[in-house]
Amino acid sequence: MNFDKIDIFKADILIVDDSPDNLRVLSTHLNHHGYKVRCVRSGAMALVGAQTTPPDLILLDIKMPEMDGYETCQQMKKNPQLCHIPIIFLSALDDPIDKVKAFEVGGEDYITKPFAIEEVLARVKHQLTIGKLQKELMQKNERLQQEIYEHQRTEAALRDAKEVAEAANYSKSEFLARMSHELRTPLNAILGFTELMQDSTSLTNEHQEYIKTIHRSGRHLLKLINNILMITQAENRHISLNEEDFDLYSLLSQVETYWQFKAEYENIQFIVDHSSKLPRYIHADKSKLLHILNNLLENSLKFTPQGYINFRVYADTITANAEQEVTVEEAILIKHKIALYFELEDSGMGISENELSSLFEVFSQIDVGGKSNQGIGLGLPITRQLIQRMGGDIAISSKSEQGTTVSFFIKVDLAEKNDSDELVENPGEFTEDFLDAVSFQLSLETITPDMLQAIMPTQWVKAIHLAAIKGFDRQILQLIQEIPSSHSTLAETLKYWTNNFWFDRIVDLTQPLLNLPHSN
Description:
EC number: 2.7.13.3
Shape: rod-shaped
GO molecular function, one term: kinase activity
Distance between the termini: 107 Å
Order of helices and strands: EHEHEHEHEHHEHEEHEHEHHEEHHHHHH
Structural class: alpha/beta
Keywords: Coiled coil, Kinase, Phosphoprotein, Transferase, Two-component regulatory system
Catalytic activity: ATP + protein L-histidine = ADP + protein N-phospho-L-histidine
Protein name: histidine kinase
């Protein structure tokens, strides 16, 4: 503490002593040091003067007629207006009992007469410093109390706002859930009837195209409704996991085959790299993993006009500390939880740096997506919510016109092969779960007559067309075997239609190439 700075504080000092000589000496020295001094000769006058204009400090003699210093001090300490003023006793009484009494009645200090003026000045400055610091402390405490009060008010307002926001969000979610349900009911009827009408032979080709357009638009609307419901569930943390044991190799094979076909059709090189240490059987939510992969691959293909897409998958263990580290092979043996890492790298349009931060905002579209007018900005927010629900996270790095890299991981448990549950699926065939996950019922949206014409000769097209009209499934399956292995997705799609007796789809696919009328 720099006591010199206290000197600039022109303190008001009240001296109470029945000796005029003492009053003159003390007032002269204190005035010389810049203090404002008042002098009185009795305790009664001290009380009146202090109440009229409270001083900053009082020098009080003990031995005075009528009202001594002890009583004067007691009266001041009982007065709320004066009790905070520091009092220094001045007395010729040097008995310890007198000094103790002085402190008991409320005195802050005690100076024995005859006094040295240097001691008086030092003790005065010391008490004024303490008083000034106490005053500052009280002011800071008052400000702190006010800040605490304001903070409490702000917290209360925030709690109220949070409750209002949560109530509004709940109402919004309830509204969306009810509206989505109400929309689904008539939409399912539309999709069902358009599915039936596509089999009708009484409609013209033009009307058939109208029906197909209605059906495609209906499925798109259904997907949009499902996405809105999913993002609502994610906001309310209601996403549930339907975990099961399944063959990861089979699932990745289906994903690779499907997107390899779509990439080839767009003249995009699709490169897949699976780690040799990847576990085959895992326990996780298969449908949500498919949703994540298909959504990210669809985005990558959509915004990659030329070049390549690299799809990499590998596994790593999850450890609590360095001492428990195990290899993937060891983790498989002891059924240790592992992390599956996925990475998609493309040579597409890329994303500008200032737009990366808004990629996962609901209904947000980047310039590329906005200019292409594709989607409403729900795909990536839903994907991230699903990944986080599965214990992982996602990161995207990109530069405009230089491509994009999407990396994410999920946590899974290891499973064992169970023949009774038929975990091992034929990797060359699409399962119904996979077809549902990628909305494989797009028929002419995915496989076009021009695509078929580029792959198979006219005679083959005519043969499968006639077999489909007559409903000869065995003949169709035999013809499918003639499709080159490089176009396995086309073969599996036609096989799936045949096994589900969707011969009309084969007829619709081949009809434009042969210019033949529908026959019974």
